[in-house]
Specification:
38% helix, alpha+beta, 14 helices, 2 domains, single chain, Aminoglycoside 3'-phosphotransferase, Chain: A, domain 2, Phosphorylase Kinase, domain 1, 3-stranded antiparallel sheet
Length: 357
């Protein structure tokens, strides 16, 4: 019954766009929207009372062809039931293809991805985009960019099963790292939700970079936050039907390759400090969304509280990528077990290539 109503909404969008509403449709997996595929079009319906798709309808036409964003065919609907129709591109989701790709194919895909990302980061964000809750609790329009993050830490301090001393330590780290991200209020466009679920691959080329719902103005290296956590925990970002095929070791070389292909992104001064702050701002937002219902040790290791603890301890994926992994019982296994296949062991860690590393 749910699919019946969802298909009706997709067909209504086609009708309102002046297209054949009786064309064959196939349901596609998506976390945030109802997505339907026809031979020519992708129909996305947003059931949330926000303006994600309206933002994308405004951003899409402003993107140059070198970003590989599909043509926006039509946008419409109303708040809580708006829709966007785009031209369908050939290829399959890159993360779905990744397990069966050769090393050479993977390397070429990252090379093309780096070039697309570089082109994106040269675009000026369209003015007057509708507001949206961003993945990181940072706001360059505030007197201090970290104000939303510090306010969220005050709220998190009141949660059951949250240690106030732990929150105080995070607050100290935030205050120490805050100067590293200034100036934050810049005009350059970022994708905002960068991972291979939003990339299409046709066995030779990247045919599309998709889903610009969270795109906004921001420092280019802010895109590394979601992307590097995707490389560290790819199985948390993919569809359930191939989650069991998605292995972190297959993604381990990607940050090294991306740093080779897009070196200016990794030359950002104080990049390790900046990515730590981005990561904290992301995880604290999720902590507010999913407060711990029991002591952290009884939660998944991927719960935002436990991810924050990795940053505080110096054992996070970012510390590994900066060559600064702390030596303790939690990280000993990681230090003695090679986890970066197909990368020279003397390669400079990606987050250690900053001009002020």
């Amino acid at each position: 019954m749910t699919d019946t109503f969802a298909m009706a909404r997709a067909r209504r969008a086609l009708s309102e766009a002046g297209l054949n509403y009786q064309m064959p449709l196939e349901r596609a997996s998506s976390v945030t929207n109802e997505v339907w595929l026809s031979p020519e079009y992708v129909i996305r319906v947003n059931r949330q009372p926000n303006q994600r798709l309206r933002r994308e309808a405004l951003i899409g036409p402003a993107l140059p062809p070198s970003v590989n964003y599909p043509e926006v065919v039509a946008y419409g609907g109303q708040l809580g039931a708006d829709w966007l129709i785009a031209r369908r591109q050939p290829g399959n989701v890159l993360s779905r293809c990744w397990p069966s790709m050769s090393i050479e194919e993977r390397r070429e895909a990252v090379r093309q991805f780096a070039n697309i990302l570089r082109n994106l980061h040269q675009v000026t964000a369209p003015p007057d985009l509708p507001e949206i809750a961003t993945p990181q609790l940072l706001d360059g329009r505030r007197f201090h960019t970290t104000e939303p993050l510090l306010e969220a830490l005050e709220k998190a301090e009141t949660f059951q099963h949250v240690d106030r001393g732990f929150i105080a330590e995070i607050r100290r780290i935030v205050e120490d790292l805050a100067p590293s991200i200034e100036p934050f209020n810049v005009p350059t466009l970022i994708h905002g939700d960068l991972h291979f679920e939003n990339v299409l691959w046709d066995n030779l080329h990247i045919t599309a970079l998709l889903d610009f719902e969270y795109a906004r103005a921001g420092p280019p290296d802010l895109d590394l936050d979601v992307f590097l956590r995707f490389c560290a925990y790819p199985f948390l970002h993919v569809a359930e039907d191939y989650e069991h095929l998605t292995r972190a070791e297959d993604y381990a070389p990607i940050p090294y390759w991306l740093a080779d292909d897009y070196p200016e992104l990794f030359a950002t001064p104080k990049l390790f400090e900046r990515t730590q702050l981005y990561s904290i701002a992301y995880d604290v937002r999720e902590l507010l969304q999913f407060p711990p219902a029991r002591p952290p040790r009884e939660l998944s290791r991927y719960h935002p509280y436990n991810r924050l603890e990795l940053v505080v301890r110096g054992t996070s994926h970012l510390h590994r990528l900066a060559g600064r992994l702390a030596f303790d019982a939690m990280s000993y296994e990681a230090l003695v077990t090679p986890t970066i296949p197909y990368v020279a062991y003397d390669a400079v860690p990606p987050l250690a290539r900053s001009s002020e590393a």
